[in-house]
Amino acid sequence: MSRLPVMSSSKRVLGSSSSSSSLENGQDFAPAQKKLRKDPESVKPQAAATVIGGKRPLVAATRAPLSRTVRGVGAATVAVGPSRGVLKPSIASAAAKGGNVKQPAVSTGTKAGGGGAPRRQAWDLKGKVSDMEGKIRNYQTKVKSVNQENEVLKGSMVQSQTRVVEVEKQLEKQRNQIREYEGELQALSGVRDELEKVSSDKDTLQKELSNLEVKYKVMETLRDSQETELQTLKMKLSVQESTLARLQTTLRDTEEEVRCLKETVAQQKDELHAGEMERRRLHNTIQELKGNIRVFCRVRPLVDGGLSKHIQLPDSDIKMITLAKTEESHTGKTADTQKNYNFSFDRVFGPKASQQEVFEEISLLVQSALDGYNVCCFAYGQTGSGKTYTMEGEEFDDSRGVIPRAVQQIFKAAEKLGAQGWEFTFTASFVEIYNETLRDLLYTGKANKRPEHEIRKSTNNEVTITNLTYEKVSNEDQVLGLIALANQNRSTAQTAQNDRSSRSHSVFQLDIEGVNAGRDVKCKSTLCLVDLAGSERMLKSQSQGERFKEMTAINGSLSNLGIVIAALANKESYVPYRNSKLTYLLQGCLGGNSKTLMFVNIAPETDSFGETLNSLRFASKVNDCVIGTASANRK
């Protein structure tokens, strides 16, 4: 109980002494800390000081005790408790945190006084405080010595930096000298290369000089020979001049002769053109005398060959055909009677007539298309009578029909006329009339996107079809390819009378435009070739369903064609062309500015007598028609 006041008073004394010691330390260390702040580069020379002294940096060693001197006193203050001897560990820990405190100092610091002093008792706090104050004074003395050493090192560092600056200046100066030397060295190396080059050029020039001297000697020799040759050429030149004068005289005579020949050629070209125009005029006159609408009759042979008995073709007359029909007596008392039906046409072809023989009769009519006249040729007859064979034929040359032969003739004639200055352009189209609907046979798109077509009549009375495919063609093969495409797209079907019966009317049209630039003449025409669908009777064809609908449309359009033909034959004021698509499309061919040819095809079978008689009667009406005189479309 009596120790408590002493402990409290000692604590106060220790606190005041520790605070006073800390103030003294702060005053002593303040200049050093200010110097360190002012000179931030003072850390670098410490490495040199470490090397010289063989110890750790002194500045760092002094700073650690400065920041922990008060803590050391505090440790001693805490160690006042009599039950714990914690002074030695606290001092050891403080020494470990400081950079300059050695291990032996810790062992001595725990004793009261120093080297051989006895250890103080735990209650002797005043003695311990005095020991600690002694240690603090020792540390302060060491700090002052370290600061002095630091000042010395700073001075040596400044000198070293000054020396380094001087060394760097000398180094930079030497580098500049090295660069100058290198520049001089490069200049000297360039001079050396140039010297070598000059010496090499000198050797080359010397060699060239020697070569030129040799060439000069050779040239002197050549000069002498050339002078000799020049004298010879002068003599020849005088001879050539005399020859030239003679040839010039001959040339003038020849030019005069060429001029005369050119005039003759121009005159002959004029005569040739006049002859071509005269040929066209006479050709047209012949066609007009034959009739602007003509009818040819062709009899199909029987399947086993020959001719049926009810058809008679006189050998002496190639324009006559007779149908003979034997009628039985209804009473049986009189003999059977024979009734004859006689028909006369522009030409009748028997079953033995070839495709070439048939085409020769219409070749002149095809020529009119190139002369600028519209030409139309169509085939009429019952189903199975040979219309398609007549118009298109087969792939073999002997069996080719009217359409491919007409195309071949057109292109051959156009090539011949090209020598007279004519240039032709051709445009082909192919359309069919199926169930009174127009279809483009050259259409290659999707079936569900097929466009609709309508017949339009322009202001100059030309009949055109909307949305139709028009192909530019330049040779026969292109046209034949289009015809093959059209045959694939055309509507055909099997009936009781024909395995491959045409169920539509097909119209092939070739537009022709010719220009003769030298004569300033133009012509435009159309070649129209039509294959009509066959007329048929329901009892014979046994058409049902869709075939019956097709048969009705075909017979209706052919009936309207007959009505138009009758109106033209009777010279009626109104002709019902618009009653069907067929007559509306063929309006220009039937009653306009066109040369028209009709083939009437008849079947030789006996059971076809009625259809044959109707076809021949219809053809006779057409033959009796008189249409206006066709005129050439020339400009």
From TrEMBL:
One of its GO terms (molecular function) is microtubule binding. Signal peptide: none annotated. PROSITE patterns: KINESIN_MOTOR_1, KINESIN_MOTOR_2. GO terms for cellular component: microtubule. ATP binds at residues 381-388. Residues 1-49, 101-125 are annotated as: Disordered. Residues 8-22 have a biased composition (Low complexity). InterPro entries: Kinesin-like_fam (IPR027640), Kinesin_motor_CS (IPR019821), Kinesin_motor_dom (IPR001752), Kinesin_motor_dom_sf (IPR036961), P-loop_NTPase (IPR027417). It is found in: Cytoplasm, Cytoskeleton. Residues 292-625 form the Kinesin motor domain. Residues 129-271 form a coiled coil. It holds the Pfam family Kinesin. Keywords: ATP-binding, Coiled coil, Cytoplasm, Cytoskeleton, Microtubule, Motor protein, Nucleotide-binding. One of its GO terms (biological process) is microtubule-based movement. Belongs to the TRAFAC class myosin-kinesin ATPase superfamily. Kinesin family. KIN-14 subfamily. This is Kinesin-like protein. It comes from Seriola dumerili (Greater amberjack).
